[in-house]
Amino acid sequence: DGSTDNSLIILKKIKDKRIRIFKIKRSGGPAKPRNYGIKKSKSNWICFLDSDDLWENNKLSIITKQIKKKKIDILCHNEYLSSPNKISISKYGPFKKNFYKNLLINGNCLSTSAVTISKNFFKKNNLKFNESKKFVSVEDYDLWMLIANKNANFLFIDDVLGTYIIHDKGISQNNKKHLNNLKNLLKYHIYHIQNFEYNKKFLWLYFQKKIDLLSLFDNFKKNKSITKTVMSILNLCLLNPSFSIKFLIRKFF
């Protein structure tokens, strides 16, 4: 994606005929290079590795065994979550009945660098990452929901086969932009994709409240106007007590 970190020079030094390098002009988001890579790929199985994440050495061999054993369309393994102060394990999934509805209501439970997808399923259902600037940092969440909406066979495995690295320069760490794009994504799905809730305005109101609370908690964590933020949270909770209690239980318990 037009990177300037000398990755192209390093890759050209690797003498392996299986590695093919493609470079495009900088697009401003991960969706376009991912779609381009999928199009250029020769295998039926696609794995993603973002530039700031890592794979374990045995990842591909374990994934290969899984896709040979079971009928699946998309697989996701667990990852180490690495931040400057600690390392923990991030567990993804689990798969649940009505998975599209579950993803929309409860949020993303997959990680791009931990995902393997069938290219045949992609082509059959005419799927791709949304390249709109309004979806940057949530284009993966959008795709998982679209895949779930096509009744894909999901498999979550407990193996920890990669590391997701948290740092200030990550796209998803720009929380103001991320929450705004999340709002764009959820509104699109509520009004154009989902069909389990007839009252779309009611559902959208629920998500507006949820994002407002997420934004307030983000301000609180950054210690910006703590008193004002606490008062705003309390005010929102008092105006919407039932929603707020359910939200807090889901977030912290």
What does this structure look like?
There is one protein chain. α7 runs antiparallel to α8 (200-221) and α9 (226-239) packs across α10 (241-252). The chain has helices at 7-12, 31-40, 59-69, 99-106, 119-124, 139-149, 175-192, 200-221, 226-239, 241-252, and strands at 45-47, 53-55, 74-82, 87-90, 115-118, 154-165. It is of the alpha+beta class. Helix content is 47%, strand content 14%. β3 (74-82) and β4 (87-90) form a beta hairpin. Strands 1, 2, 3, 4, 5 and 6 form a six-stranded mixed beta sheet that branches. The longest helix has 22 residues, at 200-221. It is built from ten helices and six strands, in the order ααββαββαβααβαααα.
Portion of residues in beta strands equals: 5-15%
N→C terminal distance? 39 Å
Number of helices: 10
| Residue share in helix | 40-55%
What is the CA-atom radius of gyration, in angstroms? 20 Å
Number of strands: 6
Overall geometric form: globular
Largest sheet: 6 strands, mixed
- Please provide the ordered H/E string of secondary-structure elements: HHEEHEEHEHHEHHHH
| Structural class based on helices, strands and sheet pairing | alpha+beta
Q: Mean pLDDT, as a whole number?
A: 86
User: Which residue ranges are poorly predicted, with pLDDT under 50 across at least 5 consecutive positions?
Assistant: none
